[in-house]
Amino acid sequence: MYENEELPATLEWYKDQIAGHHPSVVKNGIRQIGIVKERGKEQNLLKLVQDGMRGISEVQFYDSIFQKDQSNHTKAQAVALEGLRNFVPHYFGKRVIEIASRSYEFIELEDITYPFKKPCIMDIKIGKVTYDPDASEDKKYTESIKCPHQKEFGFRILGYRLHPDEKGQVRVQDKNWGRTRTPENIQAAFNDYFQAIPTPKLKSDAIKIFRKELSKISEW
């Protein structure tokens, strides 16, 4: 959408978005559309389907996990997909929405932060690489230098957003901060994220829950 255009009255920007196609980014007069919310359905999110294979692949990913008819999969594949469903937000299909007289395709997902009054969110890309298998060598190189230690870590931190502290300040770090994470300061990054937890006991309990949930993904 163009920089001077507004969302329709039925939509609003998702205020807790950290990375991805962020509406604060404007290039050549074009404002990026990332995640929006529909007024009256605040428990869900609308995520813009990207152009090209990346968008097609994302839709196919959710379709394959949540489709009721698994007859085109082997039993093992069906079981694996059912297990994967436990680790992703619920998917409600695709929506076509008109913004400024143009039609855009979105996927509708559960907002897993909705039950929380002050959600503390860290955005992490899991994996040693983030480019497509058929990406050009230039693209592979460009992506690899963005986060030099990603292959070593097996993930990339894109930032975090912690809701107001006792002074009413929202603490935010972005992808540029995430790209500076090294083996020497990666632990400090997670300590920063957990700073919103008021006591050592609660922090320890939260970390145990995180590790338990991550182990489930690892076992899957």
UniProtKB/TrEMBL annotation:
The lineage of its organism: Eukaryota, Metazoa, Ecdysozoa, Nematoda, Chromadorea. It comes from Panagrolaimus davidi. This is Kinase. Belongs to the inositol phosphokinase (IPK) family. One of its GO terms (molecular function) is inositol tetrakisphosphate kinase activity. One of its GO terms (cellular component) is cytoplasm. It catalyses: 1D-myo-inositol 1,4,5-trisphosphate + 2 ATP = 1D-myo-inositol 1,3,4,5,6-pentakisphosphate + 2 ADP + 2 H(+); 1D-myo-inositol 1,3,4,6-tetrakisphosphate + ATP = 1D-myo-inositol 1,3,4,5,6-pentakisphosphate + ADP + H(+). Pfam families: IPK. InterPro entries: IPK, IPK_sf. The keyword Glycoprotein does not apply. Keywords: ATP-binding, Kinase, Nucleotide-binding, Transferase. GO terms for biological process: inositol phosphate biosynthetic process. Its EC number is 2.7.-.-. It is an enzyme of class 2 (transferase).
